[in-house]
Request: fold
Amino acid sequence: MNKILVVKKSSSMKRKKAISKTTSYTILVILSIIWILPLVWMIIQSFAGEEGSYQNGSLFPSSFSFHWYIELFTNTTYPYWRWFLNTLIISLVCLVLSTFLTISMAYVLSRFRFKSRKLLQSIGLILGMFPGFMSMAAIYHIFKSIGMAGNVDFWKKLIALILVYSGGAGLNYYVSKGFFDTISRSLDEAARIDGATNSTIFFKIIIPLSKPIIVYTALMSFLGPWGDFIFSSYILGTQTESWTVAVGLYSLISGANVNTYYNMFMAGAVFVAVPITGLFLFLQKYFVEGITGGAVKG
Reply:
């Protein structure tokens, strides 16, 4: 009798687990379709053979071609290749500067004990809660007053954007600090016994052990400027050739352009997603390790 009850309980548990798994996977599949469907539609729309968003009253185009991708790089009124290059330069410079500032700040707060350290961390935490665009007007007027915003030389505006994106990078130290906290301090102590300075320990011991968090920080530093619209539209002015991809693509679907350049906008959106998607796929291992490693301690 007891064996029969045990078998029934076991069968019931297996059935419940199967139902639970089936339900979970079904929900995940539905959510994945909801998330992927707009991306698939965007790709299909970029290969449309006609102008406009709803050709012949249909959600999908009736013909396909590479016309809009060719137009994307040959149109002289809207120089997408120049926008792409501008965005790439800004993002790469910010990647280097922001990563170095973030990692350095995290290392100092993780390894050194000094007066007002807790206060500094609290201030950084509080400031990080406010969205960056709240300071947009003040930042614009500061750069405008020193001739680095509006219709001025492109390189001045480029430097201004780099300063905007990299200036507050040190406030993003939280995840990196958590990762450094997991690295044993005995390594630092052993190196100091051998006569190593703080900079030597940082560059020759800590950095080689911190590849996951450096990759994570670098990707985040690259992704911010790559997709930003608010600050770049505010600082770059009306000179078409100085725009970034986000500002340029917006101009393609604003006002009377929406029907003429809608599919060109889709092609530009697909193309701009390729580099960052490739980076995430290639560096996914380190990206995940960086997040999980930094979440161990705070």
